[in-house]
Amino acid sequence: MTAKHSRRTFIAYGSAALGTSLLLKACANQSATPNAAGDSKPFKVAAVFVGLVTDKGWNQSAFEGLNAAKKKLGFEFAYVERTAAPDQAEALSEFARQGYNVVLGHSGEFVGPTQQVAGQFPNTLFLVTNGGISGSNIASVQTNNLQAGYLSGTMGALMTQSNKIAFVVAKQFKAMDQILRGFELGAKAANPAVVTTASYTGDWDDVAKAKEATTALISSGVDVIYSYLDNGYVGVLEAVKEQGVYLLGNTSDRLSDAPKTVLTSVVQNVGTAIASVVELAQKGEVKNQVYVVGAENPEVLYLGRFSEAVPLPMKQKVTEVEKQFKEGALAFKDCSVDGKESWCLQGATST
Amino acid sequence: MKTNQVSNAFLPFLAPMLAIVAALIVGAFLIALTGVNPLHAYTILFRESLANYYGIGNTLTKMAPLLLTASGVLVGLRAGQLNIGGEGQIHMGGLGAALVGLYVHGLPMWIHIPLALIGGFLLGAIWGGIAGYLKAFRGVNEVITTLLLNYIALNIISYLVQRPMIEPGAASPFTPIISDSAKLPILMPGGLAHAGIFIGLIATMVLGWLFRRSPLGYQIEVVGQNPTAARYAGMSVSRTIMFVMALAGGLAGLAGAGEVMGLKHRLFETISPGYGYEAVAIALLSRGSFTGVIFTSLFFGALRSGANVLQREAGIPFTIVYAIQGLTVLFIAISLAVESNLLHRVSLRMNRLKPAGVKL
């Protein structure tokens, strides 16, 4: 097992390696010229995804939105998928270095890497989905999570028999807190007796964990589940079907998965939201701000098809809430609940 | 006698080289399947990982944690312990560094950086040490404990970054940025490569010296090769095992500390995308040699950074590069078997030719 090398060979190999790398560095230095984004060049958009673009959820939605926008607006589009946290800063800066005009990091995870590298590329716009940050060349885009949660909460509270509804999600962070808060507010507005709970599975794609968490919630009396998972959704769906309770879909229209079980879905087309900001960027009208796109853009956030199990008056009530969001009659504001930063309905004093 | 010596020094490098070449040839077929010219792909892979300013930076960034963790695994192997807990130890090390980097303020850089590194080393060492204690004093198999401790560590970190340590209003579970005084310096301006690679090289050289020159290294070696003889010679086998596992954990902890202090400047859930497991492969392929670890880590780091570029520039899926990596491991395992068979036959023939009493 043990190799017999003398100290001399060790030093020789080590210094050879070091020398070669220094030499290569010196050579390569010359080729690394900063690229100026000329006006005649085509507009170039790049996206970095944490997961796969075929996940039927978060990443695929963005991917399809950008591909549709590419056809419509005619920009060049490149992407990398499955980029783990240690590689994110590298992926963003490589695209920026190659002269891409917009570099999208499609997750709140990209906040750190974006802040790390954006300063070096003043000619590139860094866009972060769910980022909540802005800067001289940084903008963020997200769908209106509060609205999505609120609509789901309203639907759930109208349909529950046990007055217990629950939100199943992988992890806890700001965007998910917003959905949960909307869910609570919507449920309380529809029926003050309803109790909402949240369950965190820790994994967006783990089917078994999702099923376990859902089954546990159902056995505690919950009879409407709002799932907010990627592939883990399959586990939620199984549990809900087995136990004969209701499900609220997210992200895309899930009715066809189980027409009797899925009450409705709050479709959040994050890809279309991203595409709308990219379009602004191509026109040169983008501002360095956090874009929150909700029901006011009916292509981005809307209610999917309803199950036959939903009686007409209840369907009308939920659709009415959607309309209020669309018209701006119902909106949210920042507020403080029990000393913590949170969100409340505009005009309401407290919860 | 002389030729034999030369081949002894040369063989450990020849076999991995041939294995890598073989893996690249088979990999070429896989790449061709995706509709890309393999030659074009390999040109990109080489150019963007080793022959370009940013590529070298990316390779070094990935090599640093691999090198430290693999050295830790190798130290364990020398004492006969298979430590597959690198992943958990990296994360605990990251936690240690983040704690010092976040909650200790007002120190000058030259104190804060070593302190944060020590924090990372200590937590990693505790994590490795737990497995070491269970093996040495309770007889629990270290493969099982280190593997299971990975899950515990990952879940602890997951809890911490989602609840108590999360940055207020964070867009994803992560902590605030550590103090500037605890950040490792960047090596190449405009790139991401940080001083972690030096920590790795220094640690590996110190270890090389430890095993070549010091009584402690000798003791570890003896414990690894024959615990009974070690005990008979008056060495404490259990204490040595415990020490080795803590040291291995500490080295992986340093890797995690480097990731937090040099690359991401904050703690979050997946600071390691499987470096801990890759390190086991690197250590096994390096055949007990610390020099070998340096080169194997470089190769794996280059593959990793090249893989990212292959996807970006040639549209080759990441999984193909993983397959090439897997093929390398497979071919090296094959070459090891072939080589030991060959050596055995050569030495048999030598023994027949040489008169008795001549020592090879």
Describe, in short, the structure shown.
The complex is a heterodimer of chains A (351) and B (360). With 351 residues, chain A is an alpha/beta fold.
Q: How much β-strand is present in the residues of chain B?
A: under 5%
What percentage of the residues of chain A does DSSP assign to strands (E)? 15-25%
- Contiguous low-pLDDT stretches of chain A (5 residues minimum) are 22-38
Write down the overall geometry of chain B: globular
Q: Percentage of helical residues of chain B?
A: over 70%
The major sheet of chain B is characterized as: none
Distance between the termini of chain A: 69 Å
Largest interface: A-B, 57 and 62 residues
Largest sheet of chain A: 6 strands, parallel
Indicate the structural class of chain B.
mainly alpha
Instruction: Count the DSSP helices of chain B.
Output: 13
Output the number of helix runs of chain A.
Answer: 10
- The CATH fourth-level homologous superfamily of the largest domain in chain A: Response regulator
What Rg of chain A, in angstroms, do the CA atoms define? 24 Å
Distance between the amino and carboxyl termini of chain B: 6 Å
Give the helices and strands of chain B as they follow along the chain: HHHHHHHHHHHHH
Query: Domains counted in the coordinates of chain A: how many?
Result: 2
Give the CA-based shape of chain A: globular
Structure write-up:
- The complex is a heterodimer of chains A (351) and B (360).
- The longest helix of chain A is centred in the N-terminal third of the chain and has 25 residues, at 7-31.
- Chain A is globular, with a radius of gyration of 24 Å.
- Chain A has 2 domains: 44-143 and 272-293, 3-Layer(aba) Sandwich (Rossmann fold), CATH 3.40.50; 145-268 and 303-325, Response regulator (Rossmann fold).
- In chain A, helix 5 packs antiparallel against helix 10.
- Chain A starts with 6 loop residues before the first helix and ends in a 6-residue tail after the last strand.
- In chain A, helix 6 links the parallel strand 6 and strand 7 (195-200).
- Mean pLDDT of chain A is 86; it is low at 22-38.
- Chain A is built from 10 helices and 14 strands.
- In chain A, the strands form 3 sheets. Chain A has a 6-stranded parallel β-sheet, with helices on both faces.
- Chain A has 351 residues and is of the alpha/beta class.
- Chain B has 360 residues and is mostly helical.
- Chain B has a domain at 65-290.
- Helix content of chain B is 76%, strand content 0%.
- Chain B has helices at 2-33, 38-50, 53-78, 86-103, 109-138, 142-162, 196-213, 215-225, 227-232, 237-264, 275-285, 290-314, 318-353.
- The longest helix of chain B is centred in the last third of the chain and has 36 residues, at 318-353.
- The model of chain B has no long low-confidence stretch (mean pLDDT 88).
- Chain A: This is BMP family protein.
- Chain A: It is found in: Cell membrane.
- Chain A: It comes from Drouetiella hepatica Uher 2000/2452.
- Chain A: Residues 1-26 form the signal peptide.
- Chain A: Residues 44-300 form the ABC transporter substrate-binding protein PnrA-like domain.
